[in-house]
C-alpha cells in the first residue's frame, strides 16, 4: 500500500528531504516560537509602567481587596514579567461609578502621564473594576489606549491584553459591563430598601436628618441640617468624595449628628440613600448649588 504524500515514510519525500525531514520542520517551528517569545520579552522590557490601585470605601480599604494587597499583587506581576515600574498611583475612597478616570485625583495623573506627557506606555492593575465602574468612561479610555498603542495588564485576568484583537477587546468590555452593572444594581437596591423601610415605618423616620416627621401632616425642615445635606450631596456626586471625607469636612465645619454627636461617615451614607425623600421636601433644589463649607481639609 502506497504511503500518502509528505508522509515520513514516503519514498519521494525521503529522496528529496532525507529521513529526518519531519524533525527539520519541527525544529524550524520551535525556532519561530522562540523568536516570537523573545520579541515579546523584549517588548516587555521596554514597557514603562504605572501601577494603579483604587478603593471606593474605607471598609474596602481594610478588607481583602485593600490597597496594600492590590499594590503587592501588581508589584509581583511586574517583577515576574520584567516590567519597569515608574510610579504607583493609590486612589483612596473614590467612586469610579460617579467619577470618570480624568476626574479622580490619581486618575487624572494617570491620564496625563499616558496621553499628555507620554512618560509611560503601560498600566498595571488588579481588575477592571479598580479602573472603571462607568461603561462610557471605559469605552473612551480604551479607544485612546488603542489609538496610541499602549499596553494594559490585568493581573487577576489574562495578564497583558492586546485590545486590537477582537476577542480580547470583547472580553475586556464584557468585564467592564459587569462591573458597571454591579454598581448600578447596588445603587438601585439601596434606594428600594430605603423606600420600603419608610413605607413600612420600620425606619426611624421621626428623627430623619434634616426633617421632623413626627407629625406627617406638618413636616418641618431644619434649615441648618438641610444645608449640611446639600453639602453632602455636592461633595459626593459633584466632587466624588467618599463618605468618610464628606463626614470629616462637615464635622470640621461644625456639623453634628441628629442627636448632637459627631457627624460620621454613617450619617453621610444615610443622607445619600434618602435622596428622593429630601427632593420631595425641597431640600435639594434644582438651581446650581454654591458650597459654603471649607473644602481645604482634603488637601
Describe, in plain words, how this protein is organized in 3D.
This protein has 299 residues and is α/β, with parallel strands linked by helices. The protein contains twelve helices and seven strands. The chain has helices at residues 11-17, 21-45, 58-62, 67-81, 105-115, 128-131, 135-148, 166-199, 223-238, 243-252, 265-273, 275-280, and strands at residues 48-54, 84-91, 122-125, 151-154, 159-161, 211-212, 220-221. The strands form two sheets. A five-stranded mixed beta sheet has the order 2-1-3-4-5, with helices on both faces. The chain has a two-stranded antiparallel sheet with strand order 6-7. Strand 4 and strand 5 (159-161) form a beta hairpin. Helix 9 crosses helix 10. The longest helix is centred in the middle third of the chain and has 34 residues, at 166-199. The radius of gyration is 28 Å and the shape is elongated.
